[in-house]
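Cross-posted from the bioinformatics board.
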Amino acid sequence: MTELVLLVDAYLVDALPEIWFGAVMFALAMYVVLDGFDFGIGMLYATRDDEHEKETLLTAFGPVWDANEVWVVAFGTMLLAAFPRVYSRVLADHYLLALGFVLALLFRGLGPEMREQRDDERWKRYWDYSFIGGSFLAPLLFGTLAGRWIFDAPTLSLPALLTGVGLVTVSVATGAAFLTAKTRPRLASDLRTYGIIATLAYLIGVIALLTTVVVTDAGGAAETVLSLPVGAIVVLSVVAGGGGSVLALRGEYRAWLVSALGLPALLSLLVALLLYPNIYPPTGLTVREAVVSPLALNLVTILGFPALLLVLWYFKFLYGVFSGPIEGEGYKN
Amino acid sequence: MFSTVLPDVLIQGWALQLSPELASRAQFGWTISVHIIFASLSVGLAPFIVYFTWKDVRTDDERFTRLRSFWVKVFAAGFVMGTVTGIPMSFQFGTNFPQFAEVAGELIGGPLAFEAKMAFFLEAVFLGVLLFGQERVSDRTYILSSVLVGVGAWLSAFWILIVNAWMQTPQGFEMITRNGMEVAKLTDPLAAFFTPRMPWMYVHMVNASVISVALLVAGVSAYIVWKKRDAAAWNTALKLAVIILLVTAPLQAVHGDAYGRHVADTQPQKFAAMEAHYDTGTADLHLLAFPKSIDAITDPKAENLFTVSLPGVGSFLATGGDFDAEVLGLNEYEENPPVAIVFWSFRFMVGLGFLFIGLALWGGYLIYNGRLSESSRFLKTMIAASPLGYAALLTGWYVTEIGRQPWVIQGELRTSEAVSSTLSGTEATLTLVGFVVIYIGLILVALHVLRWLVEDELSELGVRASDDDRWYGPVPKVSDDD
């Protein structure tokens, strides 16, 4: 009976609200990392003219994109479950960006799936546009939304737009790294060039963003930006990006992939650091103030965390089944 | 803000602008109407996929290879449509109805998060394996993948309906003030998850999904059999669909009857709207209703309808046995749901339900005589009936959701209070128009895809598509000039 009372009146562990902030940011990181390379594949797809090369890119994308995309739902619903005020206000305050983003996801997802349904030049071309356009707009709008969220900045402002561009470039970088690890040498060396350029553009973008924030003190984040942890993240990003580019040039694509995936993960960590202890600057609420009551949070912890571990296992299984380079007609048969 | 960037004048100038509330409701209603078709397609098709996959892998029977391959393609296209139309749903809780999301956050956030983690991921991951991995995993893992995809779909419906059932019969919470707002605080998780409505809704919805898919399978099979009578696989599929309808269609009627009684107990206002029952007193049951005038369509009341009624049976049903029982009328309430939509939707759904029983019995009789694929009349009827399951399913949901108005959470929060206070009519109208245009395109694409799958199947069976069956899209077949 005492245990039951504990469950109702107090958090399972005292730091549970902070743990949930971390869990929500973890889901965000998973989304930005995994769907990020999907977006990258979509944008790099625009550089391919050869039907066979296009098919190769779509084969890499096919079995995993849908599962990757679900992380944005996991992120959103975990935010709702733990911090309903933040979920409501962030989405309501960025109405057109949020719905523009989901529509971009719609076109991105339908593109490859519908393209396969009919062997007709123009039909395929339109769905190619849908795939490419969606893959570009989704990270741009999501990143811009995140920039507004973190820095309390208008849509057409440097902090918001640079966050959007940062997400676009990092997606191209990870997409290129993912594809080079999975395709034949000629295509791989072609994509590698785009990947390296995108990596450099991303690093410049992040540094420009943080400089802007320090100069304008957007969202009052200047002080945090100048702190040691943020500095460490910048240094690590430069190391991962620069080192990754060297690895790419040497043709060590698997190692490049690992360091490239580190970039969006570090970006998500940066987001968490910039926000904490606040969670949505315009409301002025801290993590502790915005969190739900103990019983509700304990419940989603007890039921949700084992489920999250299971999900991670599914992903290990999925990527295990579809590991290794794509040969000939791809994974099919 | 974006609204300063957008040509505000443009939309206002065309006098197209709706109020944020009306536009938000129309947008949510429209987007969920499209989404639910694909979502229930996954739920209903899942058992078929499991069965076909299992028979295919275990028996090497060519019929089941064909059926599995065809219906997995339909499932995959439907699942993608379900994903891309489902994500806007969860976003709209925040973009359009943020007060609802905040007030109900503790109650709905958990189930929605569990849906993503326990169901949606399961379905998405193992669908990847089902579609692309047959040569990469063992037979057992492959069959298991099909089962897990199905479990994912059914679990998804489970968690989503927990949320919806709570909105109909909310319990397990108390209202508190947090950050200056009255919000619901979870006090009893079991009560909040397993509300009185939950089991009714789950059975009714899953069964409706299976019926809708059985009708779709029957319709497609009937079309192919009609074109090629000896198509073995499709004769099997037709027979299977009819047998499933023979079980599920009567079950839905019996279950629906008891469900109606439960609604009368828990949401008397909705029940009164379903029967257009205005004056408190004995309620009749209108088996059939015909409007006497145009007014009677838009404002149905017992006195302006020709009805075939069972006197007192409304009371009997509402109370479970008392013909003279008093049933609360709509005049008792300050604000009522749009009675016409609820009243006519309910009749439409029930009417179709009885039609499905009739079709099932007809098919069963033909199976008994061994003439299922011989009756052209039956085949043509089943082809015509293939979308009707979805028509019944949608109108059923209109009864449930529109009948709950003016409440979004029954008795606790009004829909008008849930709508975003920062949303402008311009923004809301703009996105509404966008969703309407894009989703109409989406439906047309989905119908074309289904048609092409059927045509491909026919050409594989050696049936030449006649010239008038060709696709006349905006795309000429040959174009060298670009």
